[in-house]
Design a protein that fits this description.
Elements: H1 6-19, E1 22-28, E2 42-48, H2 49-72, E3 93-96, H3 102-111, H4 119-131, E4 143-146, H5 151-166, H6 172-176, H7 180-193, H8 200-212, H9 220-227, H10 236-240, H11 263-270, E5 279-282, E6 288-291, H12 294-304
Antiparallel strand pairs: 1-2, 3-4, 5-6
Helix pairs in contact: 3-4, 4-5, 7-8, 7-11, 8-11
Length: about 300
């Protein structure tokens, strides 16, 4: 049997309407009034049954409302008053973006009214001293974390997360011929060089290649960190100053990390992609272009930047 269609439904409705009867209402004239032959006049009015039923229902509803009004008064139509209740919302996760410095994290928590200014910095110093870390910047992993107690608890959580992140790759340190502190610094530099996780292992290998050959790293992010100049173009004078975070004229790694690495940057520093490139640049779309020699690097500059 096929399902009924809309046309079938229309036919059924029309058939029911045809079967409905009518109601005869009798109107009687006043007593004593007669027609031409002396008989009382009786007038017949016919209305559809459905209209009669609808009229009865409407009248019943009106009478019911009137009775309810008499019994309960205005209370039936009185608007409800919504009582406001204060609810304490628990503090959710805090997002620490990749590359944030400890000072930026401290400011973030302060702006969220989770700590007093400087409390997180003090907490990281305490964790650094307690755990015998050579420096603080870079040893606290970025990510999304719950803030449950205080600045010390939060700093400990970030440091524990970094330790958990490096543990699966510790055996790579011997092959890379670096210390874990070196890895933390490299990861923080990689983080500032790109936000693309796919590029991080390649950039990390460029850093290792240049370190092995005794070349300067030439990473401007270290200069920006040392000068706290993240939001302005670097000038010639910025590179003429002799300070530890200048990786253009100085060889080797800077003395500390330059921000909180992501787990991806940390893994890239511990497990770089093997290659023999020494130069790289990003074009306007963010695509990475690498060169083995300085001449190749100059060609990339001409092709993708000029």
């Amino acid at each position: 049997m096929t399902p009924p269609t809309r046309e079938d439904a229309k036919k059924i409705v029309a058939k029911k309407k045809a079967q409905q009867g009518t109601v005869r209402l009798v109107k009687v004239t006043k007593k004593g009034k007669k027609g031409k032959k002396g008989k009382r006049v009786v007038r017949m009015i016919q209305i559809p049954l459905s209209l009669f039923i609808s009229s009865v229902v409407v009248i019943a509803l009106v009478i019911g409302l009137l009775l309810a009004w008499q019994v309960t008064g205005y209370r039936l139509l009185k608007p409800r008053v919504i009582q406001e209740v204060a609810i304490e919302v628990p503090i959710g996760g805090v997002i620490i973006y990749g590359g944030y410095t400890l000072e930026e994290i401290d400011t973030l928590l302060f702006n969220k009214k989770l700590i007093k200014r400087g409390e997180f910095l003090k907490a990281t110093e305490e964790v650094t001293k307690e755990r015998g870390l050579p420096f603080s910047e870079g040893w606290f992993l970025s990510g999304t974390y719950p803030f449950e107690d205080d600045a010390l608890q939060f700093a400990t959580l970030l440091q524990d997360s970094l330790n958990s992140g490096v543990r699966p790759y510790l055996r790579n340190l011997e092959q890379l011929e670096v210390t874990l502190s070196d890895v933390v610094i490299i990861a923080s530099m990689v983080q500032r060089e790109t936000n693309n996780p796919a590029q991080m292992p390649q950039i990390a290998q460029v850093i290792y290649n240049r370190l092995k050959e005794g070349m300067s790293l030439g990473i401007d992010a270290t200069t920006r960190y040392g000068l706290k100049a993240w939001d302005r173009p670097l000038t010639v004078e910025d590179f003429n100053g002799d300070f530890p975070y200048d990786t253009r004229r100085r060889k080797g790694l800077p003395p500390t990390g330059i921000g909180a690495p992501t787990l991806e940057a940390l893994e890239a520093a511990l497990n770089p992609t093997p290659h023999d490139y020494f130069y790289y640049l990003h074009d306007k779309s963010g695509t990475l272009h690498m060169g083995k020699t300085y001449d190749e690097h100059k060609e990339n500059i001409a092709n993708y930047l000029n």
